[in-house]
Amino acid sequence: MPSEPSAVPETADPHRPGSSGEHELQCAYGTRDRADRFYSEQVRDRLLPAMVEFVRRMEMVFVATADASGECDASLRAGPAGFVQVLDDHTLAYPEYRGNGVHASLGNITENGHVGLLMVDFERDRIGLHVNGGARIVADDELRAEHPELRHDPAPGRQAQWWVVVEVEEAYVHCRKHIPQMQRVAQRRPWGTDDPAGKGGDYFGARDTAPTQRR
Fold first, then answer.
1. pLDDT digit string (tens) for 74-86?
2. Rounded distance between C-alpha atoms, residue 74 and residue 64, angstroms
3. Nearest to 97 by CA among 188, 162, 193
4. Rounded mean pLDDT of 74-103?
5. Do 104 and 167 sit in the same domain of this protein?
6. How many domains does the chain have?
7. 60 CB contacts (<8 Å, ≥6 apart)?
């Protein structure tokens, strides 16, 4: 790992993409020129046509959220190709299906309406797409009233209860250098099941251990 910077040589520029923390480390570690090339050539404030096509064939998305105090959560959402809906080149939406009732991601969004999405093609092109932006929770019937073109999924247990609507602020590539090549296999997904075995059961053996002690 790089050593800790002893000082920040110049002030972060609020007009550049990225966070002030990124900018400070770029200056401290001497990577500002490389970062500026990436910002200039790859970071956009909208979904380009090739990005739209990419989103429409994805079957999963990794979702990063944080609550008001900055406590983070990363989660996975999955569905049939196109389950992440592109509403326009500045807006996308993904469905919230029935889950475990915890609502970790949705709860964070109610406190801190920023999300980071990562979609990865492990199978064909080995490439990823980051989408960062502001998020809001919309009921299924409300979003369908605004966008009647949203398709209804026929699979039991795969009905959207809510949607997370994301206003795109940043969209950029995730390079393929460390993305593994994967191969599709047939599998049965028990959508909407409450059967413990169907959901993975107590896979990590947590049930017989002491519960979390909050500090």
1. 999 999 999 999 9
2. 4
3. 162
4. 94
5. yes
6. 2
7. 76, 77, 78, 79, 119, 120
